[in-house]
Amino acid sequence: MTPQGKTMNQSLFQELTRYDQLVILCGHYEGIDERVLHGVTREVSLGDFVLTCGEIPALALLNGVVRLMPGTVGKEESLKLESFESGLLDYPQYTRPAEFRGWKVPDILLSGNHGAIAQWRKQQQMERTRDRRPDLWEAWLQENPGSHPSDP
Q1: N or C: which terminal CB in the chain sees fewer CB atoms within 10 Å?
Q2: pLDDT at residue 85 above 90?
């Protein structure tokens, strides 16, 4: 784990699920002795900042990889619908009760119309990605020409 490595992302987690073992070296304060690094096959970073230790990024890496392994998540199909799997952020999540402190769950989600719900969720994913992560939105537009409205 090092701020000099490739930044963690979903595709890295997916790639690492193919290995039987992962050995993670975590430096403390100034990192790892350079002489040890000859055996390192990959350097990974949590992001463009520095922490006092590598255990926090290692935990993030392990969590991201383990949750993709069979048997970790109850409904494996749900993993395909999450942020970054389709190139878009996730749609808004709601739980019970249907109204909380005056805020209501959108009526469409209570309608029972699964097709309309799926359409609403896709629209929400597109709007959230466009508004919150323009970098992801532009990448998604490049990879999905013609499969989206020009202005969600």
Answers
A1: C
A2: no
Tell me the domain boundaries of the chain: 6-66, 82-143
**pLDDT > 90: what percent of the chain?**
73
Q: Copy the structure tokens of residue 43.
A: 């350097």
C-beta of residue 50 within 8 angstroms of C-beta of residue 3: yes
User: pLDDT tens for residues 34-83?
Assistant: 899 988 999 999 999 989 999 999 999 999 999 999 888 877 776 766 77
- Per DSSP, the residues of the chain read --TTSEEP-HHHHHHHTT-S-------BSS---TTTGGG-S--EESSSS--SBSHHHHHHHHHHHHTTSTTSSS-GGGGGGSTTTSSSPPPP---SSSEETTEE--HHHHS--HHHHHHHHHHHHHHHHHHH-HHHHHHHHHHSTTSS-S--
- Model confidence at 150: pLDDT above 60: no
Considering the domain 82-143 in this protein, what is its CATH number? Answer: 1.10.1270.20
For the chain, how far is it from start to end, CA to CA, in angstroms? Answer: 39
The residue ranking higher by pLDDT, 84 or 36, is 36
